[in-house]
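Morning!

This is the sequence you dropped in the shared folder:
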Amino acid sequence: MAHESITARLFTLQAAVLPRTKARLGRLLADGNASLTTITDAMAHDPLLTAVLLGQANLAAPSPVTRPTQALVSLGFTSIETVLGDAREVSQRQCQPLAACFALGNATAVLMRIIADYRSTRLPHRPDDETLHICGLLHDLGTVIAILHFTDKYVSACRRLAAGEGPLSRLLEEILGLDACALGGHLAGCWNLPPPYSTVITWHAKPLSAPSEWIDLVALVHLSRTLARALGFHAPGDIWLDPVDEKAAEMLGLGRTDLERVLNRTLDELEELQLFESLLLNDG
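The structure's back. Tokens below.
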């Protein structure tokens, strides 16, 4: 597909929401007593809703809105009701693939916080935990969109990957015209996502090519994603493990022993992430 055609389609995409998430948020909003924190926490693991909310808040904002809490204060709770009303429910057939993608995003978010704490001296301008979480959560938004809205092409790429024809990123680019990073980057532009999110979405696979202002953060996302995938979190069909970018690891002062320690610390939180994915697999 031509890039112009893909971009035009992205501008008109209908948001999607998992049935369980929609039901839970609907109950909280109907209750009338839910706090800002409660509503934000209910959305905290869903990259699609988080991206839509941040995008809407940035449409007319005088400065970038990077936190969901900021977005809710700016837009009000009625914005969530509108988003939920406009969104289509994800089909049962697509719940399992999305559960895997959401779990990868959340696992990446957990690893980002752990690595940022472990190597705080290499991150003099360490982002707050909420920003770190959103970077990890949203980084693979392109794959989510490919599964939801370019399903046939994504399935075709996965079949070719299973046949040993190459990594998913290259195969998807051959079939669709864009890999998941580029697709996510286009979507970030269409949905008004601010830096740092648009940057990590676009460059996490090639961290050293990222704009210098964000290169440390993109390197952190890259390493966190790579380790999350090594722990078994990956998008449907994407079983091709990417190697760690050694220069990105060096940039953050992480050697092989350091990465092993990070993984051991992450295992303490792995059970909760597996439970999260299991709940989504039974969504509906």
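Headline: The first strand starts at residue 16 and ends at 17.

More detail when I'm at my desk.
O.
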